[in-house]
Amino acid sequence: MDRARVEAAVRELLLGIGEDPDRPELERTPFRVADAYAEFFAGIGTDAVAIARDGTVHAEDGDRGQLVIVRDVRFRSVCEHHLLPFTGVAHMAYAPGDRLIGLGTLSRVLDAVASRPQLQERLGEQVTATIAEGLGADGVLVVLDAQHQCVTTRGERQSASTTVTVAASGTLAEAAGRAEAIALIGAGDGTRATPTVAPGHEAGA
User: Fold this and answer.
1) Do the Cβ atoms of 127 and 142 come closer than 8 Å?
2) Which CATH number, 3.10.129.10, 3.90.1640.10, 3.40.640.10, 3.30.1130.10, labels domain 48-186?
3) In this predicted structure, what is the pLDDT of residue 202?
4) pTM of the model
């Protein structure tokens, strides 16, 4: 990232909205924003498929299980339309082929792909494709439930609304496999709502 350009752009933005970037309270704001953007966009240029592939191990037939689900993985990203954050939880499921992936690696893949200017719909599709390619899974399903600041803090200011997207591939894109995975994601302590998506309306359908 070109920090000097980011800092200069933030200074220009402050001037553009009628502020004085040289007043004491704002003089370090360009530096702080550059720091934040370095974190928010650290995934640009990162090979997320390599992260997934490096986190896999060979599994014998009896060790694989039929379905692996990791629920409630917190993530944050930045909407590319308004450069405002969206935050939420991801539920990731995969049907193993001949390899298993470290459970922590799934969150690292999600973070790498989320740390770019994003759309939630595309984020789910990219995480699904990354896990499928890096792991060689028979099927992958990713459910994202997120709150967007471009919705909660501007326009109609729907402060309680969230957006749910579903992306799937392979056996988990088939109706039966998808339904089973989504039902298991919604199971647990009895307080989690089961995501419901009409056939043909999930992301990528």
Assistant:
1) yes
2) 3.30.1130.10
3) 44
4) 0.87
